[in-house]
Amino acid sequence: MIRIKESFPFKYTRFEKARIIGARALQISMGAPVLINTDKTDPIEIALEEFEKGAIPITVKRRSNRFVWLERSDMF
Questions:
Q1: What is the C-alpha to C-alpha distance for residues 71 and 55, in angstroms, rounded to an integer?
Q2: Which residues of the chain have pLDDT under 50?
Q3: How many other C-beta atoms can be found within 10 angstroms of the C-beta atom of residue 46?
Q4: What span, in angstroms and rounded, lies between the C-alpha atoms of 8 and 57?
Q5: Burial of 21 (C-beta count, 10 Å sphere; 0-12/13-18/19+)
Q6: Which domains does the chain carry?
Q7: Could you count the other beta carbons within 10 Å of the beta carbon of residue 25?
Q8: Mean pLDDT, all residues of the chain
Q9: pTM of this structure
Q10: Which tens digit of pLDDT belongs to each residue from 15-34?
Q11: Contact by Cβ (8 Å): 73, 8
């Protein structure tokens, strides 16, 4: 098994993007603090804006022929 660490910028798949935004929207709806300044009140719209601005600290693990870690190292 080969481990390769790719740094940002990289492309999320549409499934990863949906999972990240959905999970963050759930956190916001349960009372988690919002990571950006925004006038929006809908948790999904806030999560989408956070995602677009790169404010969501998350690590994605992909499994394919090789093991790849996708990590926003500039946020940690």
A1: 13
A2: 1-2, 76
A3: 21
A4: 12
A5: buried
A6: 3-75 (3.90.940.10)
A7: 20
A8: 80
A9: 0.71
A10: 989 999 999 999 999 999 99
A11: yes
